[in-house]
Amino acid sequence: MIPENNRLQRIFFIFIGLILTCRTFGMDICDKVDEDKNYIDLVNPFVDSHRSRWFFFSSACRPFGMVSLSPDTDTEHSWGSGYLYGSKQIRCFSHVHNWQMSGVAVMPTVGEFKGHLGMNAYQSAFTHDGEIAKPGYHKVRLTDYDITAELTSTMRVGFHCYTFPKSDSSYILFDTGAFLAHGPTAYSEVWKVSDKEIAGWEIMERTGRRPKDTPVYFYAQLSKPMDEIVSWREGRLEPDSNPERISGKNAGMAVRFKTRNDEKVMLKVAISYVSVEQARKNMLAELPGWDFEQVKQASFSEWNDWLGRIEVEGGSREQQIKLYTDLWHALLGRHVVSDADGHYMDMTSDFPRIRQIPLGEDGKPLYNHHNFDAWWGSHWSLNILWSMAYPEVMDNFCNTMTDMYQNGGLIPRGPSGGNYTYVMIGDPAVSFFASAYNKGICNYDAELAYEGLRKNAFVGGIRDHAGYEHSKTAHSGGMKYYEERGYVPDGRKDVEGMHITGASMTLEYAYQDWCLAQMAKTMGKLQDYEFFMKRSKNYRHLWNPESGYMQPRGIDGDWLPCFDPLELTEKGGFCESNSAIYSHYVPHDMTGLIELYGGADKYIERLNANFEKSEPYGFFRSNKTKEGNWTDYGNQPGTGMAHLFNYAGAPWLTQKWVRKVKAAYSDVTPYGGYRDDEDQGQMGALGVLMAIGLFEVDGGCAEKPFYEITSPLFDKVTIHLDNRYYPGKTFQIITVGNSADNMYIQRASFNGKKWNKCWFYHEDFIKGGTLELQLGTTPNKKWGIEEFPPSSVSSDKD
């Protein structure tokens, strides 16, 4: 912890690691994508940007970039902040748009100096006329100052190019004490290094989610020498006696210079979470020169490579734009926090520690560390997409979490700035690891990871922390009850934190037990496998045969009174959802769930009714009426529901409802497209999977993973396989007769052979091949019903 007035610990942050190329963890695959295709031109960063969350919009950013640089129109909340398309003013350009992290705000101005008066004074109107936002680049005109700002970046360095008017009073502000998104800056210090260099650090004040004050350091270079330094603190300009260094709360510094008309002044800002010296090293490693156009084009090229790992042909231009915008989000929001040389800050214990990622024979770090929101729900989104097309990404995150276990004693749900945050509930990391490991993605200490995951599955593990419950003696996750009773009761009095929802916890713990069992089986831990498989049946304790729903139980074991399956508040017992949705949340044992509903026909009738009732509401919960709350594709718990028909022998209904959901979320304007929290790529990844026609209801965690098939939006989908992991070259999905009306699969072939199954194994996918689908306007109710679920899975569920 860093108490606000603890000067010694702040001094520690200044000097820590001062004694302490560039590897942006791009993927070198044997089969290169078509370099002539500009996938970046099909990405529209403005989609649904009218109501951004702080980390939603990062235009001048590399894939997973430590620097996530973009204009900020709103800076005072975690939600409704960052770049909002409908806002009238740009307040600054800041470099960190992360889960619970922000920092290093800069702003060019001309004329009367207003930096000390704050953003409300020095902000500028801007225009969308001539504005350009692409992956890795943003261009916008500040109309109050007649300044054109252009932004790009490397992994760890933000690169600004400002075209100034003629003026004797042109400034670039470093508002190091600014309030950015999640909370105030507790303390900052900034100083002049030379006539072209500025350096400093900021302490992000702790939040209810990130429980410790957290530093960010920066080192900046200008392309022309400054004429004057102006510094301020607490809204007052500093006297000239010591203008070249300023520290304190609400402090900042600006540089002034004269500019000719249309003169370009460039600024490079490197960041680190370790030290100023590490920030300087990041700049030397990644951006020693000043060629803005070269860096911009290099960013375009890198994004083109990453986006091009999934190629599509056909469909409408709007459908292609939505797909690549979704894919961009899936490769953007969970940012790197380790330096180019592999140093990172560990904040898991009572005092910060500098750690070093192991280096390879080439002297470069073997992986990167990341900052990210919870994996809650990622088993239906990122886990599937990344494991197919970006397996190295999964290795990076698995190493991040395993290191955190070794450093701090728990595998995290979602770390921020090296802190545990205890965001959301349960242990969704186990589905991430199980999917990775069972798909052969295991360049990390799997035994150590399993040890940590097993610890999480008992009293004292991370499941015992309810949402944002930071106490070391946490118990609000209810694992004592889960171990003793097989369910977590609602209505408990001795609880703290958020999301105290026993019914959701029970259902998620049961699924997570199954995921751990699958990993244990692959690793030969058969006693653990039997134990966790037995516990994975605990979802049955919540089934009320009289109501036909999953219902919360009280401390006394009775059903909670006043049950309403459409109740979305947590008094209903479910986390950010309701019983109508969570009653289908048994992704690991759909055969058993369907039996509880009374068999396949009754289950199909019930599930289909959910979709029919919610279709008029766009498959999105309603804030005005409960009538549409039967599905919700704006939040994670319901995002697998359309694919569940496959398990009841009605794959044509999966094909129908997946298409209809995609149509409801097809908006590519700034005023729609996600409709709710995009959650650092999770909804983007889900959109990609639904568009290309592949999914995994169990999250890909089975001992022998398999993909479920539905009808893609495109005539041809090509997934380029990473040959460091998988032996094949490409996997292609080709459709014949595809159209908006032709949504139903009539027949299929797999590598030239007739295929009557609505699934295929991951082991066949990684060899490469072709799946061909003939589509039509009416359902073929005989296709896709053979041998499903696969025998290798159903045997686990007996």
TrEMBL record:
Cofactors that this protein relies on: Ca(2+)
GO biological process: carbohydrate metabolic process; glycoprotein catabolic process
Ranges where the Glycosyl hydrolase family domain occurs: 278-776
Molecular function terms from GO: carbohydrate binding; peptide-N4-(N-acetyl-beta-glucosaminyl)asparagine amidase activity
Chain coiled-coil ranges: none
UniProt KW keywords: Calcium
Assembly and binders: Monomer.
Organism: Phocaeicola dorei CL02T12C06
SUPFAM superfamilies per UniProt: Six-hairpin glycosidases (SSF48208)
GO cellular component terms listed in the entry, alphabetical order: cytosol
Protein name: Alpha-1,2-mannosidase
Domain Glycosyl hydrolase family 92 N-terminal: 42-272
